[in-house]
Q: What sequence folds into this?
């Protein structure tokens, strides 16, 4: 148990303490000036100075390479712009695109509300950090502008000017620099070494004096100058002069100046104390960034590029198409409005009550969006009325009565007998299906089995009238959702796509990742519990499962479930590729999740088990109320790691022939007549999008950890 | 009145009461090590028994056997007329009759104080939530910390945590309370607040079995003191008898070391 008066691990308590915008003032170290900061962190000793110099030069070299790659004349970024919708949704019909916007809108509303409700009132990003980040971003852009290769000079005919071989070996200083860059850079680094040795010899480094810092600074700037100057060597293609290149990059200069200026204004406008103690909610910074992007769609000439009905559209001068910028603007407004709404109702009586429904909505959303909105089921209403609804009502009423009866506090032995009886019937239904004794719809079998499981567990949740009513309500709701979902899944779709899959590109990546998560998480938790169970049969089964699925390469599982599994199914049954792939991913990911959760289970102290036993909890109650909440809290970091891994592994969909994000960039775009062989741009873009998502997930997990106080106990 | 007369009087008075805990020849081994060696004792209704002994003498093992946190291997343990066997239903019944307070408090860190206390009445005793919360608030009043109901265990001091743990055990309305070194993990200035709660509980007529090193508590509150060593009961008697006139050599040695 924690020492007396340590910080509680609970989010609500932490929120209560962090109630004020201005945080409590603690004794603070005085701010370091930039020079002192450099001395202490980058130039603290001779060796550290050399490491700083060498690695910053390497960094600049990598940056230069990346910039030259991205902005080279050979790049056809138009391929990415033109195929934007293709990359994100593949062949989803343009006429039905409103559905996609509805989906994004729903997610925006849910996110805004959730984040608004959960957001801590105090805290966020300090003005100091914000202004420093703004200035750093501006400085980085400025460095990029300087480092980038200038474009080729264009002659009167609009083509790049070439020179002959003899001429190409120019005799200007820049050409000499280009030829001897390596030598010059080597000499400059050597000078740094000698400088460091000399200052070290004199003992000046120990006092962290100004001179060594300045001297190194001059040499580093000189090296940077070499790296920039080298870019203006002409070679065979005549390049723009420095002035022309800078004029071409006026928009970028503007961006850099605005960023640095805004940062500097913030820095100078606020005193040291206010800089540190004024906070902006992190979401506002995000909203501002997103808002600028949306605004730029209305004002900046990004150009309008599209691939519609077999035709390539390219209008370089215009702004983004109305069908893109209008929905995004609406979504931005929805996001901000719902965030503010969430914040506003957080303090009221409604706020805390919204949390549970909101979480349930999050679980339901993927099903509703995919099956009801994107697919738009073509329901056979006669069948729905004659079969689906009566069956759902039957199970709701019959099961409700059973639950009501079994949740009686003094049901005792009779209840267990009834529950076991139900389980026997449920198992019999499946055996009958196997031997074909009597026909029954599959969902009736599943419903019956669910009822039997609930009946077995009911005595754990028995209670007074209102408690029993809650259980019955939960059962009825579960049946309604389950039967509705099965009906949706079994109905044909009204949305026609040329491929088997309804949607492709990033859409399918997200859908497979989300459904994998929804399937594998419960499975992983169950496996972890089974592996730590007292019953040997559970332990053996779970261990065998985990070891087998961790030992098999993921790609073989995917091939098995997309290609081979169908051979084992009854004749009139097939598993669609996406469903198969999702099952493969889920089974694989569950094995890893189980190990992570098991780690969390082991971190729960023995005293917690003893205390639960001592107050008389049953094993199920102990697990659900005491052990799992603590175990899952501890295992958040590895669980999020697993989620990120799963998200990235979805790119294997490309290998089993599904048109996912990666495959479109890699195979589809490069086969278009307009962009034959153009691959690199797409791949770079895909990596960037994956990174944005993975990075944000990892950031979110860090915040979650902090809020739940993992690592504080 | 001599000490032996007092003992006789007490024995007669106790004989009239119901047996709450009966142990007959209880043996327990951890591997080859015998932790309990032929423990035979009867604890009557409303009796407060303090178990003393050097560390490793089997006190805690014994008290943990009484609500089956540890299983004994030989002998009989009967709690309020129900024998502890491997039958799960008996164990569940006994656990809901017997409250236990641990050395390390073992509060549930992810639940508020109120939830810590109401959880078991609601889910085990099947009490309506409102009733359970009323009970919990009155118990917090009784242990002297009604204002801490909404906090989390981590925000409380050790003494407060242990008082919450007592309230949690009492919320099950047990007939017997077991205390396994309830003050050993506490800072000295917090011990008194916990002992006061236990005293009040003893005066209210609760059957209590307390493993402790607090001699003051034993002297003042206990009806009977049991001294254990090496898994055996060495000596049993009233506090007066035990602290002023012990018979066994080993008891004398123990008392000379700690008093």
A:
């Amino acid at each position: 148990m924690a020492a007396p008066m340590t910080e509680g691990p609970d989010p609500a308590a932490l929120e209560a303490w962090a109630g004020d915008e201005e945080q409590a003032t603690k004794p603070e170290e005085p701010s370091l000036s930039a020079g002192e900061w450099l001395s202490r962190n980058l130039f603290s000793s001779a060796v550290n100075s050399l490491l700083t110099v060498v690695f910053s030069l390497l960094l600049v070299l990598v940056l230069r390479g990346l910039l030259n790659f991205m902005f080279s004349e050979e790049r056809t970024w138009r391929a990415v712009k033109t195929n934007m919708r293709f990359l994100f949704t593949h062949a989803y019909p343009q006429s039905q695109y409103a559905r996609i916007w509805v989906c994004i809108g729903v997610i925006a509303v849910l996110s805004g509300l959730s984040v608004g409700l959960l957001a801590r009132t105090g805290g966020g990003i300090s003005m100091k950090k914000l202004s420093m980040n703004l200035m750093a971003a501006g400085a980085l852009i400025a460095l990029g502008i300087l480092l980038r290769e200038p474009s080729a000079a264009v002659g009167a005919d609009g083509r790049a000017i070439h020179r002959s071989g003899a001429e190409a070996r120019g005799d200007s200083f820049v050409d000499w620099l280009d030829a001897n860059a390596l030598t010059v850079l080597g000499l400059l680094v050597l000078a740094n070494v000698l400088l460091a040795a000399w200052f070290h010899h004199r003992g000046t480094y120990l006092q962290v004096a100004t001179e060594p810092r300045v001297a190194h600074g001059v040499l580093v700037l000189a090296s940077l100058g070499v790296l920039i100057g080298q870019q203006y060597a002409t070679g065979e293609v005549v390049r723009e002069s420095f002035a022309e290149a800078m004029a071409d990059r006026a928009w970028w200069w503007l961006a850099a100046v605005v960023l640095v200026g805004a940062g500097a204004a913030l820095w100078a406008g606020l005193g040291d104390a206010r800089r540190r103690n004024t906070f902006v909610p992190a979401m506002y910074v995000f909203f501002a960034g997103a808002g600028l992007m949306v605004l730029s769609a209305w004002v900046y000439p990004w150009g309008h590029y599209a691939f519609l009905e077999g035709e390539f559209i390219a209008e370089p001068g215009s702004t983004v198409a109305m069908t893109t910028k209008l929905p995004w603007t609406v979504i931005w407004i929805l996001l901000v409005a719902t965030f503010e709404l969430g914040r506003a109702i957080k303090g009221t009586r409604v706020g805390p009550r919204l949390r549970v429904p909101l979480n349930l909505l999050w679980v339901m959303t993927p099903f509703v969006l995919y099956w009801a909105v994107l697919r738009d089921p073509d329901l056979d209403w006669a069948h729905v009325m004659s079969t689906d609804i009566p069956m759902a009502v039957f199970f709701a009423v019959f099961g409700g009565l059973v639950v009501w009866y079994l949740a009686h506090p003094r049901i005792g032995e009779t209840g267990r007998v009834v529950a076991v009886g139900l389980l026997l019937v449920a198992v019999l239904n499946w055996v009958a299906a196997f031997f074909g004794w009597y026909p029954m719809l599959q969902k009736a079998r599943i419903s019956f089995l669910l009822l039997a499981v609930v009946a077995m567990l009911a005595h754990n949740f028995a209670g007074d009238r209102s408690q029993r009513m809650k259980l019955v309500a939960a059962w009825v709701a579960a049946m309604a959702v389950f039967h509705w979902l099965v009906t949706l899944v079994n109905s044909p779709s009204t949305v026609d796509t040329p491929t088997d899959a309804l949607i492709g590109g990033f859409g399918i990546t997200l859908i497979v990742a989300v459904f994998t998560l929804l399937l594998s998480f419960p499975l992983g938790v169950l496996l972890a519990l089974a592996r730590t169970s007292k019953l040997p049969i559970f332990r053996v089964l779970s261990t065998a499962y985990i070891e087998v699925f961790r030992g098999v390469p993921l790609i073989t599982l995917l091939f098995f479930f997309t290609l081979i599994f169908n051979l084992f199914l009854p004749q009139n049954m097939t598993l669609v590729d996406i469903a198969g792939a999702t099952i493969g991913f889920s089974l694989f990911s569950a094995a890893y999740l189980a190990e992570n959760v098991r780690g969390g289970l082991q971190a729960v102290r023995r005293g917690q088990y003893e205390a639960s036993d001592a107050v008389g909890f049953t094993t199920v109650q102990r697990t659900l109320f005491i052990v799992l909440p603590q175990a899952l809290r501890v295992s958040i970091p590895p669980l999020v790691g697993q989620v990120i891994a799963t998200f990235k592994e979805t790119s294997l969909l490309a290998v089993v022939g599904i048109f996912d994000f990666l495959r479109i960039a890699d195979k589809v775009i490069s086969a278009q007549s307009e962009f034959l062989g153009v691959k690199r741009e797409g791949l770079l873009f895909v990596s960037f999008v994956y990174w944005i998502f993975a990075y944000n997930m990892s950031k979110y997990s860090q915040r979650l950890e902090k809020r739940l106080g993992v690592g504080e106990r | 009145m001599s000490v032996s007369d007092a003992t006789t009087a007490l024995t007669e008075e106790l004989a009239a009461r119901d047996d709450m805990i009966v142990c007959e020849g209880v043996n327990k081994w951890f591997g080859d090590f015998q932790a309990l060696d032929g423990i035979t004792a009867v604890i009557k209704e409303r009796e407060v028994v303090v178990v003393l002994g050097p560390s490793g003498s089997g006190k805690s093992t014994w008290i943990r056997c009484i609500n089956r946190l540890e299983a004994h291997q030989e002998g009989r343990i009967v709690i309020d007329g129900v024998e502890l066997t491997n039958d799960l239903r008996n164990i569940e019944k006994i656990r809901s009759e017997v409250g236990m307070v641990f050395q390390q408090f073992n509060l549930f860190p992810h639940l508020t104080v109120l939830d810590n206390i109401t959880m078991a009445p609601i889910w085990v005793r099947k009490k309506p939530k409102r009733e359970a919360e009323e009970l919990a608030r009155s118990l917090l009043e009784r242990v002297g910390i009604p204002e801490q109901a909404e906090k989390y265990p981590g925000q409380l001091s050790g003494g407060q945590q242990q008082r919450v743990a007592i309230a949690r055990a009492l919320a099950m309305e047990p007939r017997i309370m077991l205390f396994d070194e309830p003050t050993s993990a506490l800072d000295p200035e917090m011990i008194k607040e916990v002992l006061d709660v236990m005293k009040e509980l003893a005066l209210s007529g609760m059957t209590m079995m307390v493993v402790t090193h607090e001699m003051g508590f034993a002297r003042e509150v206990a009806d009977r003191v049991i001294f254990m060593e090496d898994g055996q009961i060495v000596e049993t008697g009233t506090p007066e008898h035990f602290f002023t006139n012990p018979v066994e050599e080993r008891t004398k040695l123990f008392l000379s070391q700690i008093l």
